[in-house]
Amino acid sequence: MSVTAAQGFSAAGIAAGIKESGNPDLALVVNHGPRRAAAGVFTSNRVKAAPVLWSEQVLKGGAVTAVVLNSGGANACTGPKGFQDTHATAEKVAEVLEGHSAGEVAVASTGLIGILLPMDKLLPGIEQAAAALSEHGGEKAAIAIKTTDTVHKTAVAGGDGWTVGGMAKGAGMLAPGLATMLVVLTTDADVPAPQLDAALREATRTTFDRVDSDGCMSTNDTVLLLASGASGITPEQDAFAEAVRAVCDDLARQLIGDAEGASKDIRIEVINAATEDDAVEVGRSIARNNLLKCAIHGEDPNWGRVLSAIGTTQAAFEPDQLNVAINDVWVCKNGGVGEDRDLVDMRYREVRITADLAAGTESAVIWANDLTADYVHENSAYSS
Amino acid sequence: MSVTAAQGFSAAGIAAGIKESGNPDLALVVNHGPRRAAAGVFTSNRVKAAPVLWSEQVLKGGAVTAVVLNSGGANACTGPKGFQDTHATAEKVAEVLEGHSAGEVAVASTGLIGILLPMDKLLPGIEQAAAALSEHGGEKAAIAIKTTDTVHKTAVAGGDGWTVGGMAKGAGMLAPGLATMLVVLTTDADVPAPQLDAALREATRTTFDRVDSDGCMSTNDTVLLLASGASGITPEQDAFAEAVRAVCDDLARQLIGDAEGASKDIRIEVINAATEDDAVEVGRSIARNNLLKCAIHGEDPNWGRVLSAIGTTQAAFEPDQLNVAINDVWVCKNGGVGEDRDLVDMRYREVRITADLAAGTESAVIWANDLTADYVHENSAYSS
Where in or outside the cell (chains A, B) (predicted)? Predict the structure, then answer.
């Protein structure tokens, strides 16, 4: 499954020795065509890692032959040498695949910021990965891009005779403008780059962009969609876009479910907003409220903290018309005390917060996590 | 000291029984004149507690005779009944002080959101507080407004023959647009309301507004400045404003030093910004980065997280010109690796982060705290 669920792709995941642990740390995904169309979405952080700067250029051409991904180092804030290393990585992939250009090789990296990659291990690793390429290699590739992920993440959707598959990594630093994550989606549908781009942008806008585990935006976020055309089928754009969205949604949900140190997945739905932007702004404000995140961790249906968070936004609402439900119990009505908070059962991992702005008909869903001592522990260890 | 350091004021702090613990929970500060000028600054949260809505109206008159403050309940999100309770509280103060109008009585509350105050305890408590009023009552008043504060907070400044004194409470939910806190400042300087207002707004803009313990903005923030004129002295406005700023700065620093669960006070100075707004935006983004806050807790000089946070802002800078120092060691130079991170000594409570945007000459300082398991614990307990 994963990136090799669709026809026309091979993949590999190997241990190149980038990680001191000896765990798999290098993945390669190759598009064997006949089409090599691609689209990409990258972090909106203005401090971008070298592989992001590189891959943004590659994607402008609309064609990608291969994607090489490493864990064990983000190659971010590494200056000109870091960019040269990314370039050398792409050149090496082009060389081992023969007959391809480095300008069609996308690169993605994840790990600690501010350290150079061990190129003496990475470059030989590319040869090793190329030798291991397999049309069943999707799972191994998904495993090789893990950092603090406890599980690897894959998803598949599609239609009659065509498939969209994907893999993702990411377990912290999940935030808007893309979670920290590397995602590669592949399809054997015969879809040109502009349509891939449209489908991918719309899909990420309402999936990865609405995952906000801890409000921290990465320097390395990358989502790529590669089309081989190997099925010979060109689906209706709507059906194709929906399949891409479904895979993104599935992977985004898996990212939240595996967020560092989290004990709760919080589904925040903002309803009856004047605009979708209002709904997203309010949802994000709730998602990022540390006091609320602590309360959810403590299974405390503390709706006052939801109202506090809503009150910091510019969205259209009247304070005395706000309603809030936690796990479907309307604990806040008309800005004041509603149903008995003791009716709220918060024992399960998923917690649903519904915020009714009573100002229109638009809505949005944002996914977040609780804030736990384990999160603090995982992220306060030296150079985690 | 505290609010009775200046001449012309009396204060009291008593236990009215609002807190189940039996700890002091009601404070009264009275201005005996001859002048009763006042200024106030309130939360910019759009969900405002009843006492904030009331006191905003009172302050429009520019005159305040008394301030009554309770801990043990925020009287926020309590609907029309909550507002009636605040009104009744002010009326009771006016009644016991005799000859005064409720329209000159400011009210402030702090505690849990979404519960009505026990008026059967609060109203008799006002009689008790009035009977206990003393020109040495400042400390007791400061103690009575504590919630999760571990210490009470007071400060004093002034000039030749005149004084500015103050008290503050606040230990969490500290954020811009005012930290959650109640602050009462008093002065015996003879200063009319418009000049009080100018001094107070300028002082809060660069002190309380730049404290960002946990990014959460309260519904109840209130800062009041009362002038009795009892010294008969009208200082130069600049000297007066500086004294007000000094007291605010001292109290703001005490708030950070007593923040819930914190083990570090983080002084974030953004230098060489194109504008002061840029410096504040960047400082706040750093202050609110949970991953960085965890790293600081772990005494990890993780400058990559500083760059990640800077990169999410709209401020003017070039990524390859950013410099970052932690405790004066320039661990990041020109957007990449700088001095040896092992040179950074982070054993002490105060940690200094300097972010050089290399884009101008403006600067700003934001104070924040680290993120700890204790913070999570304190804020995840049921209805903390």
Answer: Cytoplasm
User: Which of A48, A307, A378 is the closest to B77 by Cβ?
Assistant: A307
Q: From the CB of residue A314, how many other CB atoms can be counted at a distance below 10 Å? A: 10
**Degrees to nearest 5, angle at CA B358 with B353 and B362:** 75
Total number of domains in chain A: 2
Cα–Cα dist B89/A213, whole Å: 42
> What domain range is B300 assigned to?
265-380
Q: Taking 70 as the threshold, does the pLDDT of residue A216 lie above it?
A: no
What b-and-e string marks burial along A199-232, b requiring 16 or more CB atoms within 10 Å of the CB?
bbbebbebbbbbbbbbbbbbbbbbbbbbbbbbbe
Q: What φ, ψ does residue B220 adopt, rounded to 5°?
A: -125, 0
- Among B4, B65, B180, B207, the one annotated catalytic: B180
- Provide the ipTM: 0.77
pLDDT of residue A180: 60
Domain boundary among B208, B238, B257: B257
Q: Tokens for A181? A: 């994550």
More confident residue, A232 or B207: A232
Task: Give the end of a domain, one of A219, A241, A257.
Answer: A257
Mutation site, A83, A264, A320, A337, interface B, largest B CB count within 10 A: A337
CA distances from B187 to B66, B93, B226, B237, B254 (A): 14, 21, 6, 13, 20
| Beta carbons of A295 and B379 less than 8 Å apart | yes
